[in-house]
Amino acid sequence: MEKDVVGQYYTQYADTVMKAAWHFCGSSHTAQDCAQEAFLRLLQEEPMPDSKVLPWLLCTAVNLAKDYHRRHERSRTVALEEAIDMPTDNDELLAERAAQRAMLSLPEKYRLPLLLNLVQGYTIEQTAKILGKGANTTGSLIRRGKNLFAKAYEKECV
Amino acid sequence: MKERKDAQQAYINAMNKLKMPADIDLNKKIIVSGSSKVKMKSKAFAYAALAAMLIVCIAVGAIVLYNRDSNTTPKIGSSRDMTLEKDQSIPGGEITSVEQAVAEHQKCELLLNDEYIKLKANRDNISKEMADSFYERTQKLAERDKLCTDYISEYSSEKTLFVHAIKFDNGYIDIEFHLDSESWEQFDKLYEKGYGYYICNAKTGEKLLRCVTEYRASPKELGARAQGSKVDMSELAKLKGKLSSVLIGSDEMNERVTVLEEFEFFDKIFIGGDERAELKQLADKARNGKDEKKQSYPLDVKLVSERADAHGIVVKLTAKPNSEQGAELIRKYGKVDENSQCDIYPGGERKENPQEITVIGSDGYCYSFADQHHFVRSVSTEKGSEYIDYICYIPLRKTPPEDLSFDIYLSTTSSDITDKDIENGITKRTNVGKITVKYKRNVAEKVYIALSGKKIYLSDLYFTVHDYCENGSLTLKYSNGTQRTVNSSDLWLWELRKNKEDKDLFKQFISTTATDDDIRANFFKDEISTGDVTSVTYAGEEYKLNADTQYKTAQEASQAFEQAYNGQLEILKKYKNESGKLSKDTVTQMCEQYDEYLDTICKSAKTAAGKDVIVLARKTAGSELILYIWSDADLTFPARANLDEVCEICDNDKTLFSGKLNKVNNDLVTYKDTANYGRFYLVTVDCKGADMGQLKKAQQYYVKFYINNGTEYKAPFTLTTDQAELSVNDRNTLYAEMTKSVGYKAFTSQN
């Protein structure tokens, strides 16, 4: 794929792809690596329809993030930032950290739908299209994911 | 609802802070790389790239060799290896072809392994000369290897199918598949359905090992790795010298689906990554001089507290500089990012150069070598008051003997070390601080409990059991009739939860490292594996332990099924009776509960032995028996015209009734995600002519179906329920109403 074209996609999707990767590795730095790697791989791909680009990028970045996570599971290591809880009095920050931990505690199948729907603002239909799932399935995942997330968040806040 | 909104808002805020750096320049990256080759940003992904390149490389090699003699399978590591072993010289000169690059890459791999084998043979007495020679040769080999893999990556085209296996002498084997898109899709689909993949004897088809993990790098980059369960070497010995194959199949059905490829193992013991790191550390130690007293560290590491047991060490420590060099180290590499997430690696820039911790026992064994066990609590880079506070969990690689001391080294592996750093004595791997921890034997037991038939995961368990342990009332019963009370003092991990830092540490440790398999493997590891612990009692209640599955037998699953069925019934009845009075939230909650019930059934059934068919039998008035069936096998009951003798009801081995199915509703209720959860069927058996009195007396019922071209399905069930209930149609109608009223849709009724 042409560099200019990939550049445009980068401007358009980089944050989304990086956030998606974060949902599977829990580290912003690793997520950046995964997202960057996904875009670099896109350069080596044949041109594809616009509608396929984001799904492709998400899939690639998420798989990279999963690989990273699995390798670390096997070696029984803990990424630094997952374990960090620097002291702070900032309630908002504490809430965000709790939300992050809650999100990472959800089963994987819920994470991307929630990201796309809640953060990126895609409708259920759009999310379903991106994820290549049925609208009903996606709606169900989002709804159940929201409930599970709320419960997990509550637990984290205790 | 407010809490839910707060949670979502906090999540959105957190996500909005995640951004890709604006300074990533794709064009620049490409120019820098000088080709279409991916330039890796992190060390981790550099390794991933090397691994991928290795696959491609060996794939190319294999296929090239295969093409030279199309009648033979590539024999990796056989005669060619012998040639390589004779020639120990490191390749050099210009690389002009992929074939050359592949051959040289393989040679580099083997020579590199040889270097580690030499070290291993002399691990107790590594001389400085040997260490220097090791360092020099491995550096050169790594450089040459990189040239080769770069070349292959740039010039080789994608190949279709390849299996490459290496055995490691720690009892693992690594297999890497390289598949084309079509094969990968096929593989993926089967795997999703619960099939596993195996290494087999290619001639006899005997399954030798089941592989348990896999990865894939991208939708198109076709890599997969299977790491066999840890097996003893005698199992591995079965593979040696034999042509092996990989197949996808299922345990339960003994079904062989497809053979992916035949291959041979490297006829060579490979030193694994962990051991390589350990040996390298020993070599470095030999190079730096063995008299540790002479070694000075720029950071003074002070131990604040520690706990150690057979599984690992938790240390809390503070590192402070004892010189300007150490202070500079902290100032330079210590940082906290804008989200206040700790990001401190005195060993170098975070992503590429994590600090390492090496744990050397007083017996000389390297008990742990890891690079990311740090939980930095606080850091100060302020001039004059630099310090770092750590808390670390360091898992140990083997159970140490009692009364052992550990020397824990903090090291740096930075590749960004500057000339000035080197002048100051900071080299690529330098110990920057050391503490000694005394090992105290303690039993860090872990409990796996099935509470009321519901699996409790590690995180829940620690929350739950810890409370009870504080009251000292957790009692284990053993199959030989003895029992033992576990106190909180035995369970230091539980104690970890007592203060906030430890709680977070522990939670993170669990959530990021413990998989279900780990939990099953580790919880009362020995006792459970031998079936010794039969139950756990606390707060006056006894709970059965179940090490492997939620429900061990289909009978148990069937009972759970009935329980859930009744639960659903209650929900639906409540909705029917009070539909006008229930709030939308209540109904939503009921829908979810219904959903969970179904989920419970499916998961139970899937893990049960003989999971093909789960039957809940409900005897109704008259002589009809209604069988409510769930199955994740693809059942298709025969058409009505051919229903004769498709069902037998048995008591133990005695056939009580052999009858025909009166009515069948195929695919009665389909869970949306059928690939994972299977389907429900309603079958009515006409029991006319059966001796109902005898049926009632029977104890161990099971039903046999002969469907799907004569396939026999056998499933146990209970015949105890004889209560008024809603008809299936009523159930579906009610459920449809219920879900419609709140816009909830999880199941489809296709009745």
Shape summary of chain B: elongated
Report the biggest beta sheet of chain A as strand number plus sense, adding barrel if it closes: none
Structural class of chain A: mainly alpha
- Computed CA radius of gyration of chain A, to the nearest angstrom: 16 Å
Question: What is the percentage of strand-forming residues of chain A?
Answer: under 5%
The DSSP helix count of chain B reads: 21
Radius of gyration of chain B: 31 Å
- Largest interface, C-beta closer than 8 angstroms, per-chain residues: A-B, 85 and 82 residues
The largest sheet of chain B is: 8 strands, antiparallel
Runs of chain B in which pLDDT lies below 50 for 5 or more consecutive residues are 23-86, 157-162, 213-233, 335-355, 370-375, 440-473, 487-531, 546-552, 639-643, 666-676, 746-751
- The overall pLDDT average of chain B reads 57
β-sheet strand percentage of chain B = 25-35%
Mean pLDDT of chain A: 78
Helix content class of chain B: 25-40%
User: Low-confidence parts of chain A, pLDDT < 50 over ≥5 residues?
Assistant: 73-88
Q: Using the alpha-carbon principal axes, give the shape of chain A.
A: globular
Description:
The complex is a heterodimer of chains A (158) and B (751). Chain A has 158 residues and is mainly α. Chain A has helices spanning 3-25, 28-43, 50-74, 80-83, 91-105, 108-119, 124-131, 135-157. In chain A, 80% of the residues lie in helices and 0% in strands. The C terminus of chain B is likely disordered. Chain B is elongated and about 90 Å long. Chain B is of the alpha+beta class and 751 residues long. In chain B, strands 24, 25, 26, 27, 28, 29, 30 and 31 form an eight-stranded antiparallel sheet that branches. Chain B has a four-stranded antiparallel sheet with strand order 4-3-6-7, covered by helices on one side. The longest helix of chain B has 28 residues, at 128-155. Chain B starts with a helix and ends with a strand. In chain B, 38% of the residues are buried. In chain B, strand 29 and strand 30 form a beta hairpin. In chain B, helix 5 (98-121) runs antiparallel to helix 6. At the A-B interface, helix 1, helix 2, helix 3, helix 4 and helix 5 of A face helix 1, helix 2, helix 3, strand 11 and strand 14 of B.
